[in-house]
């Protein structure tokens, strides 16, 4: 992997971009202090970047996985049996992170594209086009969801609102613009945002390091707080919406998202706030009946031990699940690019996914 330092901080950024025959990733581990880009040229480098969280966020890791396959095809150059030649790359990328379904969804799209190619097709070129199309479609889905989510806020409120969000769901986590943060950006443009309260999002600090950074660049008023302050803020700061993303949505509407989302949904219900989930249809896993059997990624306990210096004595056991499940009945609305599902359940989601949903 090659590393480059980005010097013009006034530029808008891309979490991922095709650049000089490589996948250029903004190294999110270094933000907000340093803006450095890393170029990946094969599937192993992309898988490592996903596993190490240089690139993160459900849609973004899906897009990166697709580019990983395109890069591997370019690295191989030519083959009589592309399915066999790329098998290891598919496997490696699929295993890079387990919870967000967007990664396996994007790899399935790439597999399907490969299977449909004519025998003498330029496979590396066609797979690159497929990855770029997945990237572009994600951006377009985000713009659609942003509008739908903003209209939903406008349906209930005509004045600027205080909104609470969790983790990072912005341009950094997606093909561009963002999911939950995309809705917040569109709402800001429509004059519907006063302050965005940003959960710090322990232990990786996606909220304080990434979301606050994005909001500041957008000129949106943000206020960061420790995760444990969310209930107190809901009680005292006139917050009306909690808006979050999703890593996977089960067929019954259960939402798997960053650890802490479940607790927020209960707090929101207690305080009478609306709870909006914003995710592209690539995050909906119709094969998963409910979220009970989903693999919740557990990362190294080391992530809990160091935060501005060591925080826990060596040798103390630690548990670091990075996602949790919010049951469908705690969710007011799921916004996707295909439409809005209020009070989600299995039938409404099945209708949405088969285009029978009207909104
Ligand atoms: C649009 S991003 C939606 C989710 O992927 C996001 O909320 C989240 O949980 C990201 O987790 P991360 O562990 O940073 O990849």
Automatic annotation (TrEMBL):
Pathway the protein takes part in: Amino-acid biosynthesis; L-methionine biosynthesis via salvage pathway; L-methionine from S-methyl-5-thio-alpha-D-ribose 1-phosphate: step 1/6
Record carries keyword Amino-acid biosynthesis: yes
Annotated EC: 5.3.1.23
GO-annotated molecular function: isomerase activity
Class of enzymatic activity (EC top level): isomerase
Gene3D superfamilies: translation initiation factor eif-2b, domain 1, Translation initiation factor eif-2b, domain 2
Site (Transition state stabilizer): 167
Reactions catalysed according to its record: 5-(methylsulfanyl)-alpha-D-ribose 1-phosphate = 5-(methylsulfanyl)-D-ribulose 1-phosphate
Alphabetized UniProt keyword annotations: Amino-acid biosynthesis, Isomerase, Methionine biosynthesis
Record: active site: 247
Annotated Pfam families: IF-2B
Residues annotated for substrate binding in this entry: 56-58, 97, 206, 257-258
Family the entry assigns: Belongs to the EIF-2B alpha/beta/delta subunits family. MtnA subfamily.
Stated role: Catalyzes the interconversion of methylthioribose-1-phosphate (MTR-1-P) into methylthioribulose-1-phosphate (MTRu-1-P).
Protein name: Methylthioribose-1-phosphate isomerase
Organism: Halopseudomonas salina
